[in-house]
Design brief:
The chain has 498 residues and is mainly β. It has 2 domains: 23-221, Immunoglobulin-like (Sandwich), CATH 2.60.40; 224-496, Methylamine Dehydrogenase, Chain H. 0% of the residues lie in helices and 40% in strands. It has strands at 26-27, 61-68, 74-82, 89-95, 101-103, 105-108, 116-118, 123-125, 160-162, 168-174, 189-193, 210-215, 217-218, 224-228, 235-241, 246-251, 257-261, 267-271, 284-286, 292-295, 301-305, 311-316, 325-330, 336-340, 345-349, 355-360, 374-379, 385-390, 395-400, 406-410, 416-422, 425-430, 435-441, 448-454, 462-468, 471-476, 490-496. The protein has a 6-stranded antiparallel sheet with strand order 1-10-4-3-2-13, with no helix packed on it. It has a 4-stranded antiparallel sheet with strand order 14-37-36-35, with no helix packed on it. It starts with 25 loop residues before the first strand and ends with a strand. It binds copper (II) ion. Copper (II) ion (CU) binds next to strand 6 and strand 11.
């Protein structure tokens, strides 16, 4: 939904609400009771540093889940294949050691097959860390394997039927889940329950204990995760200090800035949040002097840190009921340009650190509406223009730095958040779309074409990205889980350009 164009000038009175964002059949028994006790499963080994990274795999997308029981013993395997251009997934699996008869089977939200709290009983249960049913349509409703995702959990799959020998085999196609996009199930878990599923009762169809679990692991792709500390970090921005080999990322929740050694993965608290104007950190930019520029989100600030992480300056935007200073970029003209997702204005900061409103967007083709408006911003290397993503419309805009003319480059980039521009190739982190997209731009940056989309190994609300040498690093912000329980550790994920 779009609001009417704002009629005010640069007094910034926007009061828009901030909406951050943000089956088949199977066959069969003998009595081999499946263990259902809570037994600690060996922790999933932390990913070593698999360098160099291999290029992303061609279509079709494939994933595999090695299925284990609560004792950690391997009891089967599932494969998932998504043809190029298709949303549906072909699922094949074989599991042994089940009790004969029907078993509920679902995709659960998280990646971990470890014990965890069952919110229904507040007790620790086997595979509780896998969380609840994957619910991309936010239906909050358990349904059938054919219920649309707006009305029922996307993770509700057909029941599995074990034969008298305790083995179950299944092969089916489902469009409830996908391996890419908003229904993307990579790095989530396939769960088999002790009992049949009535495909009706919340939250899990009375299907009982969780007895078999496996994480959907993308095949043919190597990635490297950098783990971040904190249970409520919700990282948003990232910048790379090539001189020191440090990735800097900030918490949208508390303003902490962390420095991650890109080689070793070691993380240090670079600058604690909580200082004036630094209760939150969103978009980040490093300048050639090694100073870190921080967009302050709802505080309406831009902070600047020196190389050591000390606060050099906190710049305030004009008072407003609902600011959201989201991202910033240093242009070749020496000015830092700043987006605000709630107020239709582009700010800029001069080389001597004076902040001013540079462009009032009322009267331009950019119309502010509900949700997150202008967000990721980059300057073109020729110094002619800014490219800016509008999250709630999926538009990419070009703003001419000399004439201030605004023109739409392209649309179709739903949930576009942060940007990384490399020549005429633009990478776009698209948060709830759960992909990184690659756009090829014309020489004048006036038009562009979406040429590729990558879910990588599964992305959790990717907010933005940066380059480390020939690789890219994306932030998995999980900002859509700020009112729930995020998966920890939070991660930055490094991958090869595609
Ligand atoms: Cu389940």
């Amino acid at each position: 939904m779009k609001a009417q164009p704002a009629t005010f000038g640069l007094t910034l009175l926007a009061t828009l609400t901030l909406g951050l964002a943000t089956a088949g059949g199977l066959e069969p028994p003998v009595t081999v009771p499946a263990p259902v006790q809570t037994v600690p499963v060996p922790p999933v080994p932390a990913q070593p540093a698999p360098m160099p990274l291999r290029p992303t795999a061609p279509q079709p997308l494939t994933a595999r889940a090695d299925l284990v029981n609560p004792g950690g013993e391997r009891v089967g395997q599932a494969t998932f294949v998504q043809a190029s251009g298709s949303h549906s997934v072909q699922v094949s699996l074989e599991v042994e050691g089940l009790t004969p008869g029907q078993h509920g089977m679902h995709i659960h939200e998280n990646s971990a097959c470890a014990p965890g709290i069952d919110p229904a009983t507040n007790t620790t249960v086997a595979f509780g860390a896998a969380g609840g049913h994957f619910d991309p349509g936010q239906s909050s409703n358990h349904g059938t394997p054919t219920t649309p995702n707006k009305e029922g959990h996307g993770g509700d799959l057909p029941m599995l039927t074990a034969g008298a020998d305790g083995t179950a085999r299944a092969s089916f196609t489902t469009d409830k889940i996908s391996l890419s996009g908003p229904d993307g199930s990579l790095a989530r878990t396939l769960m088999i329950h002790a009992q049949a599923d009535d495909h009706q009762s919340d939250p899990a169809g009375k299907s009982g204990a969780r007895i078999v679990c496996g994480t959907l692991v993308r095949q043919g792709l190597s990635l490297r995760d950098y783990e971040l500390p904190g249970a409520q970090t919700f990282p948003e921005g990232v910048a790379y200090d090539a001189q020191r080999g440090l990735l800097l990322t900030g918490s949208s929740q508390n303003g902490n800035i962390y420095a991650v050694n890109a080689q070793s993965g070691e993380v240090k608290l670079h600058s604690p949040g909580g200082a004036v104007g630094r209760q939150a950190a969103v978009g980040l930019e490093l300048d050639p002097q090694g100073r870190l520029w921080i967009a302050g989100g709802a505080q309406g600030t831009v902070s600047v840190l020196d190389k050591g992480g000390m606060v050099l300056k906190v710049l305030e935007t004009p008072k407003s009921p609902a600011p959201f200073v989201n991202d910033l970029t240093l242009a070749p003209d020496g000015f830092v340009y700043v987006t605000d997702s709630q107020r239709p204005v582009i700010f800029r900061v001069s080389p001597d650190m004076e902040l001013s409103a540079w462009l009032d967007l009322s009267g331009t083709p950019i119309q502010y509406g509900e949700g997150v408006n202008l967000n990721g911003i980059v300057a073109t290397p020729d110094g002619r223009a800014l490219l800016i993503a509008q999250t709630n419309t999926g538009d990419l805009w070009r703003v001419d730095l000399r004439t201030k003319a605004v023109a739409r480059v392209m649309t179709g980039l739903d949930h576009a958040d942060g940007l990384w521009l490399d020549g005429r190739t633009l990478y776009v982190a698209r948060n709830t779309a759960q992909v990184v997209s690659r756009v090829e731009l014309a020489a004048d940056y006036a038009s562009g074409t979406l040429v590729a989309e990558e879910p990588l190994g599964g992305l959790r609300f990717p907010t933005t990205l940066t380059a480390v040498g020939n690789d890219l690093v994306v932030v998995q912000g999980q900002l859509n889980r700020r009112s729930g329980t995020p998966e920890t550790p939070f991660k930055l994920t490094r991958f090869s350009r595609f």
